[in-house]
Amino acid sequence: LGDVYKRQQQHQQQPQQQQQQQQQQQQQQQQQQLLTSPRNEGLRGCLCFGKKVILPNPNKIVKCASDNCQKSFHMDCVKVGASQDINTFECPSCVLFKMDPLHEVKQVLIQPFILDNLPREFLIDPQMLQAIKENERVGIEVRCIKIEGNNHEQTWPDIGEIIINKTRVQEFRPLIVNSSLKKRKDEKLFTRGAELGMNSILIREEKVDPSKAQSYRITEDGYYCAGVYFVKKLQTKELCEKVASTKRRGKMLIGRRVAK
Fold it and tell me: What 3-state class would DSSP assign to 172?
């Protein structure tokens, strides 16, 4: 009798499961049509592009405020709430690139990506390697932020590690509950341990063991965006000279436009 009852239950559940699958497929098709429509062509730069995701409000769009960017994103994808000022929103790519003026980005080695526990590769050419060997202020920098609307700051997942060329170079762990620190102080990873040619990097995010979660300060669920850069650490004097030079070029450009 027990087996008969189970078969009856499975038979009754099948139409419901099929209906749910059909509804999910329809939602995914609608989402894909929205992403690829001419009106939303600019959304190719959104974090969800190419992924099968279902957004609660796909028509709510926010544009990056950076003059050299202007990419569009779904507000749900970048967690911009209705109460936030969308006119000051900067996208994860711009935030990561401009994170530290004293660490000048010479080249983007890996474009910003959502952490997914997959390895990635970046190329170090002979000129880069020579610069790293000759100057201790030149190297590779890994930056990471948590996607939280306009509130971007350098941070790593609660638990995880960074592996470069099969060597663990950094490990992160959450604070214990009774720690005297208000929050964990996360820094960018700067390393000069690069090799000529292709280099591999893996930023592994680990899930918190539920049985140990109460002993640690665990942040709310979310996702992280990281990028890899070839940088030079500037001295304060160098940064001031760079800013002054940019201002001079700006004034010259304005003067030329006025003269025309």
Answer: strand
